[in-house]
């Protein structure tokens, strides 16, 4: 990440008209393709010696001296985002979430032909994490540093920046880092238990040691590795990681010690107290609460039932707040996207979607519904909301932009990513200097020479705005932990087995059927429908999708539409000075049989859309 900016409050606002956007994407999404691309992204983030099976061909070997100055082999692992630093905390969380995705939906990944690739992605991370843990009470948590790295714009293969390694130990503890790494090792041991028992056992040995290290020598890792503070500060502290690690240790070992640890420390470490509206690499409470709720519903709580019930209450608070059915709800954009912060908001969307998905399946197994302060929610409704978030990412949004690079036709082309923005070393091996990279490549107003397939970028702002510019790192920088939780959701959605016709949210009123407006000679068809609804500040907002079709045998030019009884923003048309709406600036005409889509959002019945003028070519 370029600079890490923690949580800040966003005042609830009314919708703003954001101008012209591309034509809306239509039809069902190809979740299998998205899953495949989402896994492929991790190969672009690899550090170290690349294997012969490497599929991202524009990448080369990099970071081959990592750890040498510290006397340890730290070659390998993942670059976290668009830079060339290896940050241990988000890398471990990435591995944990990839592993959880496989644990829950590995069979679905197998039917998609992607399980082996997903397991390779996990193993690339755990191979490195084991290297980073050379002694029971020593863990290397960073290679390189953000300050020197961000001063330069170089592809990984050309790095000239510092590759110093930073560690925690019993004199310089980091319970959050050690705890998350223990969770990653434990979760990954489950993934490999059947396919590679020896490797699984090795991972579990590291997990045991790391949990003991984290619990015995307590402290925040960024107090020991201070260079991480500007980029991955542990704002939540280490209590959540201790519980998170214990939950994964129990899941991996069935050892009652870890189950009782969760029961004994639930109150003291905040697992039963914190009501969360976010889940990510820093704040793990919602994740551990979800896992403990599963233990409880599965009859594994033992004597910890009352305490685990409090965990479950907090897990369900998270689910209800995401759905907009709690007394303190997650903010959403006008287009319906969960919104937490401007800086890389999609990390929270993918992680929340994953928790909603797995919890829906846990409830189904327990034959239960979710009970929120605003009503009861069934498991299919949880899945439907998670699906709406994934579909938004893949292009069902007011800008009709896919925020997964390489998926669909309209996706970010100027990604804030050193490797993808600089010509491949295999195409042009000429050295790219530290500052020369900024002058030649960073400042280019052109598409990246290398396609960063599958990357989930930071995403739009609170009003669904997005600027595809390389220097807009808040929105165009990808991250491994954006993708990791999404893998499980995509596998689940591809497998189906649920009613895809469920609404995004239980509607407060039935969508109004809109009759097409008569048009001159019936040559232009207009149809519109309600596609989603949500409640904010006591008001119900509706998103309407409108399709305008040229039913004639000739090309239509200078099409102007009249939209009356409109009380909100429009996306996908150009507003004229006389108040009418014309075709987008990049569409000069509408060929025979072709259509354009546009959307609008307001709090009333459908607006009246009609044709005011046009010419025939």
Write a structural description.
- The chain has helices spanning 31-44, 88-111, 115-131, 146-151, 175-192, 197-216, 221-224, 239-253, 256-265, 285-297, 305-323, 346-366, 379-394, 418-421, 436-442, 473-476, 480-495; strands at residues 86-87, 138-143, 165-169, 331-332, 338-339, 370-372, 375-377, 524-536, 539-550, 556-564, 570-571, 574-575, 581-582, 589-590, 595-602, 608-616.
- With 617 residues, it is of the alpha+beta class.
- Strands 10, 12, 13, 14 and 16 form a five-stranded antiparallel beta sheet that branches. Strands 8-9-15-11 form a four-stranded antiparallel beta sheet, with no helix packed on it.
- A hairpin with a 2-residue loop joins strand 8 and strand 9.
- Helix 5 (175-192) runs antiparallel to helix 6, helix 6 runs antiparallel to helix 8 and helix 10 packs parallel to helix 12.
- The protein is globular, with a radius of gyration of 25 Å.
- It starts with 30 loop residues before the first helix and ends with a strand.
- The model is unreliable at 1-27 and 498-519 (pLDDT under 50).
- This is Endoglucanase.
- Belongs to the glycosyl hydrolase 9 (cellulase E) family.
- Pfam families: CBM49 (PF09478), Glyco_hydro_9 (PF00759).
Low-confidence stretches are 1-27, 498-519
Percent range of helical residues: 25-40%
Q: What's the pLDDT, averaged over the residues?
A: 89
Number of helices: 17
**Main sheet summary:** 5 strands, antiparallel
Strand fraction equals 5-15%
What characteristic shape results from the CA principal axes?
globular
The rounded Rg comes to 25 Å
Structural class: alpha+beta
For the termini, the CA-CA separation is: 51 Å
Q: What is the strand tally?
A: 16
């Amino acid at each position: 990440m370029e600079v890490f900016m923690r949580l800040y409050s966003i005042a609830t606002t009314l919708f703003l008209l954001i101008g012209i956007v591309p034509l809306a994407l239509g039809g069902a999404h190809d979740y299998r393709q998205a899953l495949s691309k989402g896994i492929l992204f991790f190969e672009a983030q690899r550090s170290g010696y690349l294997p012969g099976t490497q599929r991202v061909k524009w990448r080369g070997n990099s970071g081959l001296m990592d750890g040498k100055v510290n006397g340890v082999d730290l070659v390998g692992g993942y670059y976290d985002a668009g830079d060339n630093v290896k940050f241990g905390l988000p890398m471990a969380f990435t591995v944990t979430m990839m592993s959880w995705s496989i644990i829950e939906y590995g069979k679905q990944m197998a039917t998609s032909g992607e399980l082996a690739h997903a397991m390779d992605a996990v193993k690339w991370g755990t191979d490195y994490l084991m290297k980073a843990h050379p002694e029971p009470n020593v863990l290397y948590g960073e290679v390189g540093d953000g300050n020197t790295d961000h001063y330069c714009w170089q592809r990984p293969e050309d790095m000239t920046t510092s590759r110093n390694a930073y560690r925690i130990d019993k004199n310089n503890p980091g319970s959050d880092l050690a705890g998350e790494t223990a969770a990653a090792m434990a979760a990954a041991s489950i993934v490999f238990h059947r396919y590679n028992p020896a490797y699984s056992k090795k991972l579990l040995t590291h997990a045991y040691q790391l949990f003991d290290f984290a619990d015995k020598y307590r402290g925040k890792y960024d107090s020991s590795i201070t260079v991480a503070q500007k980029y991955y500060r542990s704002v939540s502290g280490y209590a959540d990681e201790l519980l998170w690690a214990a939950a994964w240790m129990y899941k991996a070992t069935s050892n009652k010690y870890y189950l009782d640890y969760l029961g004994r420390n639930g109150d003291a470490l905040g697992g039963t107290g914190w009501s969360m509206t976010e889940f990510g690499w820093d704040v793990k409470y919602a994740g551990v609460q979800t896992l403990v709720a599963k233990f409880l519903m599965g009859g594994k709580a033992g004597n910890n039932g009352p305490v685990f019930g409090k965990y479950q209450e907090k897990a369900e608070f998270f689910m209800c707040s995401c759905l907009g059915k709690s007394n303190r709800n997650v903010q959403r954009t006008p287009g319906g996207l969960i919104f937490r912060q401007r800086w890389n908001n999609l990390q929270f969307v993918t992680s929340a979607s994953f928790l909603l998905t797995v919890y829906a399946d846990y409830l189904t197994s327990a034959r239960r519904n979710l009970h929120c302060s605003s009503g009861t929610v069934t498991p299919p409704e949880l899945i439907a909301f998670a699906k709406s978030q994934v579909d938004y990412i893949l292009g069902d949004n007011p800008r009709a932009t896919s925020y997964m690079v390489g998926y669909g036709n309209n996706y970010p082309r100027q990604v804030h990513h050193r490797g993808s923005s600089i010509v491949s070393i295999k195409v042009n091996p000429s050295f790219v200097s530290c500052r020369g990279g900024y002058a030649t490549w960073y400042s280019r107003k052109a598409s990246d020479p290398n396609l960063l397939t599958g990357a989930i970028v930071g995403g739009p702002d609170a009003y669904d705005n997005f600027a595809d510019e390389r220097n807009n790192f808040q929105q165009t920088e990808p991250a491994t932990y954006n993708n990791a939780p999404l893998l499980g959701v995509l596998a689940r959605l591809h497998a189906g087995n649920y009613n895809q016709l469920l609404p995004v949210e239980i509607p407060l009123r039935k969508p109004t059927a809109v009759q097409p407006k008569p048009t001159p000679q019936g040559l232009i068809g207009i149809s519109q429908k309600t596609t989603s609804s949500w409640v904010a500040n006591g008001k119900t907002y509706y998103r309407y999708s409108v399709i305008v079709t040229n039913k004639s045998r000739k090309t239509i030019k200078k099409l102007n539409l009249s939209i009356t009884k409109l009380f909100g923003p429009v996306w996908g048309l150009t507003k004229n000075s006389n108040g009418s709406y014309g075709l987008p600036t990049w569409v000069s005409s509408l060929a025979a049989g072709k259509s354009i889509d546009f959307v609008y959002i307001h709090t009333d019945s459908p607006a009246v859309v009609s044709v005011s003028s046009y010419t025939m070519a």
